[in-house]
Write a structure and sequence with these properties.
The chain has about 150 residues and is mainly α. It folds into two domains: about 80 residues, lambda repressor-like DNA-binding domains (434 Repressor (Amino-terminal Domain), Orthogonal Bundle), CATH 1.10.260.40; about 50 residues, no CATH class. The protein contains nine helices and no strands. The longest helix is centred in the last third of the chain and has 33 residues.
């Protein structure tokens, strides 16, 4: 199921409530509404309203913390909350022209094609890291006098 399909069947509050209940079954201590709200820095009343869908979601940073503590995908939780990860904002701002062009190009592509592009980007990034590590190793050897 694609994330957008899952979103149609889920609300943020329901997903968080079900995940907290599941965690409470495994770990009775720490996941009551009072204990969990304290652990994430929210009031029990706010958490209850969030789970019931009667209040706007907190900040993206807080949602990421909640997702991590409930073993949920932070990207999925942010999607349900209609929020953007602050890290993505930083990336977009630092590469605004390139990101805008890329998003316009991929608009309308199937998820399968987008996943293919993601895999290609990962390969390029891994190759670049390997190349940088090799270069830094070479420069360390040349600074050390190359004795060997």
């Amino acid at each position: 199921m694609e994330m957008n399909d899952a979103r149609k069947d889920a609300s943020l509050g329901r997903v968080l409530h079900e995940a907290r209940d599941k965690m409470k079954e495994k770990h009775p201590e720490g996941f009551s509404i009072r204990q969990f709200s304290k652990a994430i820095g929210l009031s029990p009343a706010f958490l209850s309203k969030l789970e019931n869908g009667s209040i706007d979601p907190p900040s993206p940073e807080k949602l990421i913390l909640i997702a991590q503590k409930l073993a949920l995908d932070p990207n999925y939780v942010l999607l349900l909350a209609n929020k953007i990860d602050p890290e993505l904002k930083r990336i977009v701002i630092s590469h605004q022209v390139e990101i805008a062009e890329f998003l316009r190009i991929i608009d309308g592509l199937s998820s399968q094609h987008i996943h293919f592009l993601i895999q290609q980007a990962k390969m390029y990034k891994d190759a670049e890291r390997t190349e940088n590590v090799e270069k830094s190793g070479e420069s360390s050897e040349s600074k050390g006098g190359g004795n060997g």
